[in-house]
Amino acid sequence: MKEFLARKNIVFSAKRYGIDALGAMAQGLFCSLLIGTILDTLGDQLGIPFLVTMGGYASAMSGAAMAVAIGYALQATPLVLFSLVTVGYAANALGSTTLDGGKGAGGPLAVLFIAIIAAEVGKAVSKETKVDILVTPLVTIFTGVVLSAWWAPAIGTAASAVGDFVKWATVLQPFWMGILVSVVIGVALTLPISSAAICAAIGLTGLAGGAAVAGCCANMVGFAVMSFRENKWGGLVSQGVGTSMLQMPNIVKNPKIWLPAILTSAITGPLATCVFHLEMNDPSGGVASGMGTCGFVGQIGVYAGWVNDVAMGVKDSITSFDWAGLILISFVLPAILCWAFGLFFRRIGWIKEGDLTLPQ
């Protein structure tokens, strides 16, 4: 069995499924649903119907894009990879419903589980028969669609329940939950896992989504500014608009360098929920909550949520206070607070010169 699994490149490990596959799923989400939301918002605001149409096409392909991305991360063979288009579509569609037929938030989570299983089963049978062109697609699609029909609605129900609980708790206790959500999602963003996929999996929107944005920005902008003396402008851009995950090798060497960003997120999270009432209600279902300032997707998502709320009559208008809160939580406070904490830790010797230098 070990020889067979090795020959088929089937590796049962937390890294392959929890990091590689999850990270790839987030990229698939970004290239479909998130880009679709951005195009749709731009089209609405600029009065360009073609952008709205393009955004709709991109968003409709989110399930297929996620599954293919997962298959690519698992190094699936071509026939398996192409067959995952159907699997992803089915898992996302059925995971977006609940057991009672309502609207669920488990589409991305269902795609993650089901696409992994379908891809590995497909890889197991790939090139094992003389009619591979028939067998591999049939087995992959059959496995994925059957599991989608069997599991996806339950996953959708569970994901919705978790997301609803987090959102309910945040509304009930905006201060403490603001801290918790901000710190946890901010940490997830810097770890080699996907904070965007986590937020999408449980549909993290509303005040909880706003706290998640605060935590992500605290890590990205915080590390970018705090390490400016070591990494200069290149590091500022790569971390502030790219990802704070670049600091993970340094965090492993000296975990104390993470404290300024974590402390900053513990402050900006409750400020987002209690003072500015920052909400993430973008139509993408929470994906942007876990993106922070990566390509400014988090900020675009908040703005898209404002536009959507105004269109639905939930919000009267977009105010200057809204903009002030978004700018302060996303950029100004993370830069000032994390820099100040970093300076303090440098002075007491917890952070030394070179500890924040990005690997070349």
Overall description:
- This protein folds into 2 domains: 153 residues, no CATH class; 175 residues, no CATH class.
- The chain is an all-alpha fold and 360 residues long.
- The mean pLDDT is 91.
- The radius of gyration is 21 Å and the shape is globular.
- It is 75% helix and 0% strand.
- The longest helix has 41 residues.
Gyration radius, rounded: 21 Å
Task: Please tell me the total number of domains.
Answer: 2
Low-confidence stretches: none
- The helix tally amounts to 15
In sequence order, what are the helices and strands, one letter per element? HHHHHHHHHHHHHHH
Helix content class: over 70%
Percentage of residues in DSSP E strands? under 5%
Mean pLDDT: 91
Cα(first) to Cα(last) distance is 40 Å
Which class do the helix and strand fractions yield? mainly alpha
- DSSP strand count: 0
Main pleated sheet: none
What characteristic shape results from the CA principal axes? globular
